[in-house]
């Protein structure tokens, strides 16, 4: 495989030329990535030349509507789904909340069950657990308290009686970071007659998903963590989306991407999301990756992952070799996202402050992952230190981080 051209990659992100941002090695990507130049330019153009009600019969409105349509069409093509299966919303938390209201009505009074995990960010946990208020049985797929892993054998036991209608789980956790086998989990759920909702927020920054290969019914992620604007993106397969009760205006229910959008869409940010597709195509062209949009996306996904695995491995080795902290999640970089959380056994926030003084941008806390951290015995008052990379992170950034950690730990 061709190696990722890191100089080209960084040239696509204005942040690396910013006098404010470029002074620090950036390891807060799991909280939000830098936007690529294509997104910045599209957002600026929309606010400059298109900031009118879209689709109306005059030039600016027509251009704005066309760019919104382009974003949905191109992202759908990248992920190998129908354009109608891509919905936008203000955030993944909001999208999941709306989806849960549809499921609430779908399952209320049926005596059936759902499965949730204690590995998730709260956005893909709390809203589902509240369905118990409607008499829906909520079954918890528990992580191993030592490793943070989800065992598929435990899921098989949970769905064995055929009462489970929905399984909600993360592609990977934002603190454990282990890559869950989404295709295998979805196969188990499907065989038991259950639908699947996958929180992909912590995975999608490391390569946009190939939805048919995963086999899930819903996949959610955040554009602001995938080099784009502050939008939540939800892929909901047509067969499931049209079965669920609509949550938008009744007269929009015939349109799948409007069924779960109760509020008006953010026109400019939706249009700017096409810049993410521009960026993937730019990477594909630079590295000689051809084919249709889905093939280009798969090739870029593999480039991103290879870069990340190579770059983050020295940090994992360094942390695993220390006996004064606990590395959360797998040591093997190939088995995880490059989001690295450590339990220091003491308050983590002051350490992140000291790292900031040494040119490292990262943070500490619970990151809304209260359930997995609690299950693993982490003191929430102390929290974890989290350092997160993506494909634009270089080996020199990691070396700089390790040197700073040596000074503050």
TrEMBL record:
Highest taxon of the lineage: Bacteria
Pfam families: Aminotran_5
Domain Aminotransferase class V span(s) in chain numbering: 26-401
One GO MF term: transaminase activity
InterPro entries registered for this protein in UniProt: Aminotrans_V_dom, PyrdxlP-dep_Trfase, PyrdxlP-dep_Trfase_major, PyrdxlP-dep_Trfase_small
Keyword match Transferase: yes
Record keywords, A-Z: Aminotransferase, Pyridoxal phosphate, Transferase
PANTHER family documented for this protein: CYSTEINE DESULFURASE (PTHR43586), PYRIDOXAL PHOSPHATE (PLP)-DEPENDENT ASPARTATE AMINOTRANSFERASE SUPERFAMILY (PTHR43586:SF21)
The protein's name: Aminotransferase class V-fold PLP-dependent enzyme
Organism, scientific name: Paragemmobacter amnigenus
Record lineage: Bacteria, Pseudomonadati, Pseudomonadota, Alphaproteobacteria, Rhodobacterales
């Amino acid at each position: 495989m061709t190696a990722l051209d890191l100089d080209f990659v960084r040239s696509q992100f204005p942040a690396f030329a910013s006098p404010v941002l470029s002074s620090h090695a950036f390891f807060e990507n799991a909280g939000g990535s830098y936007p690529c130049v294509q997104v910045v330019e599209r957002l600026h153009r929309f606010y400059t030349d298109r900031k009118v009600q879209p689709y109306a019969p005059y030039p600016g409105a027509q251009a704005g509507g066309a760019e919104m349509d382009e974003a949905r069409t191109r992202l759908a093509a990248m992920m190998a789904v129908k354009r109608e299966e891509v919905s936008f919303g203000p955030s993944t938390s909001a999208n999941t909340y709306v989806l849960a209201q549809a499921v609430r009505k779908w399952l209320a009074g049926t005596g059936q069950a759902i499965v949730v995990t204690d590995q998730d960010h709260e956005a893909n946990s709390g809203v589902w657990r509240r369905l118990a208020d409607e008499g829906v049985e909520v079954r918890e797929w528990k992580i191993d308290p030592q490793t943070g892993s989800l065992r598929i054998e435990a899921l098989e036991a949970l769905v064995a009686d055929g009462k489970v209608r929905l399984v909600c789980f993360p592609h990977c956790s934002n603190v454990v970071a282990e890559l869950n086998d989404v295709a295998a989990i979805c196969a188990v759920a499907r065989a038991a007659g259950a639908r699947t909702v996958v929180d992909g927020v912590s995975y999608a920054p490391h390569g946009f998903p190939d939805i048919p290969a995963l086999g899930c019914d819903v996949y959610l992620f955040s554009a602001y963590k995938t080099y784009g604007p502050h939008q939540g993106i939800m892929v909901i397969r047509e067969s499931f989306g049209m079965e669920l009760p609509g949550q938008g205006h009744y007269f929009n229910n015939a349109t799948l991407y409007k069924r779960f959008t109760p509020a008006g869409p953010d026109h400019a940010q939706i249009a700017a999301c096409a810049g993410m597709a521009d960026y993937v195509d730019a990477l594909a062209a630079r590295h000689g990756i051809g084919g249709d949009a889905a093939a280009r996306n798969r090739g870029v996904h593999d480039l991103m992952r290879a870069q990340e695995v190579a770059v983050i491995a020295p940090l994992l080795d360094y942390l695993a070799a220390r006996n004064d902290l606990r590395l959360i999640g797998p040591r093997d970089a190939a088995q995880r996202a490059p989001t690295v959380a450590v339990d220091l056994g003491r308050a983590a926030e002051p350490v992140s402050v000291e790292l900031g003084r040494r040119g490292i941008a990262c943070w500490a806390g619970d990151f809304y992952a209260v359930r997995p951290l609690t299950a693993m015995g982490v003191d929430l008052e102390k929290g974890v230190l989290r350092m997160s990379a993506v494909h634009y992170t270089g080996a020199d950034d990691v070396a700089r981080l390790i040197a700073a950690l040596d000074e503050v730990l």
